[in-house]
Design brief:
With 194 residues, this protein is mainly α. It contains six helices and two strands; from the N terminus they run ββαααααα. It is elongated and about 80 Å long. It starts with a strand and ends in an 8-residue tail after the last helix.
């Protein structure tokens, strides 16, 4: 055993064992980096929420004035063109989206979807081969990206050729246990011009 020293940290004190000082210092440094990254993320998220609230106030006020004008015109029995209904409906959807971001659960849903993508569709992040960090991605993730690109995602119109390709694609065995297996099988629609 060694001596124990205490070093100040952002939320209290961290105990260091002097037996292996380099690994303990690395742990403290990594912890501080993680705390700073978390703080930066929280600041960015709070700024985004405050922007959404500010936009909601401005556009909500403008939308209220617009609807008030329509209401006054309707009460005065002035003719209101039917085309006015378009901004009323679109503005309502836009304000609902802003309100969801500003005060609702939109961020929670976005985070959950991001977690799903990172766990099940990691192959979509594969960078070009020239990127210096390309080696961090596995061959399976690169294969997922190739299947994703082949699928086209332009539609699912059926034809005998496409149905045959889809059957072959489903029969093709992916590496067992790969986290992207289900997504690759679902998105394996090879589309070419007919």
């Amino acid at each position: 055993h060694g001596t124990t020293t205490s070093t100040p940290c952002s939320t209290g004190t961290t105990q260091l064992q002097m037996g292996n000082p380099l690994s303990k210092v690395e742990d403290v440094v990594q912890d501080k980096i993680a705390r700073r990254a978390a703080l930066m993320r929280e600041v960015e998220m709070s700024v985004n929420i405050s922007r959404a609230r500010d936009s909601l106030m401005w556009f909500g006020g403008l939308y209220t004035v617009f609807l008030t004008g329509l209401g006054v015109g309707a009460i005065a029995r002035k003719p209101i063109p039917p085309a006015v209904g378009v901004p009323v409906i679109l503005g309502g959807f836009g304000l609902a989206n802003m309100a969801d971001m500003a005060y609702g659960t939109k961020l929670t849903r976005v985070v959950k979807e991001a977690e799903h993508i990172m766990e099940n569709e990691r192959g979509r992040f594969v960078p070009p081969k020239q990127a210096f960090f390309n080696h961090l991605y596995t061959d399976e993730e690169e294969q997922f990206m190739a299947l994703w690109e082949l699928s086209g995602h332009t539609g699912r119109a059926s034809s005998p050729w496409r149905e045959q390709q889809q059957k072959q694609c489903r029969r093709r065995k992916m590496i067992e246990g790969a986290p992207w297996k289900e997504a690759a099988e679902v998105t394996c629609y090879i589309l070419t011009p007919e």
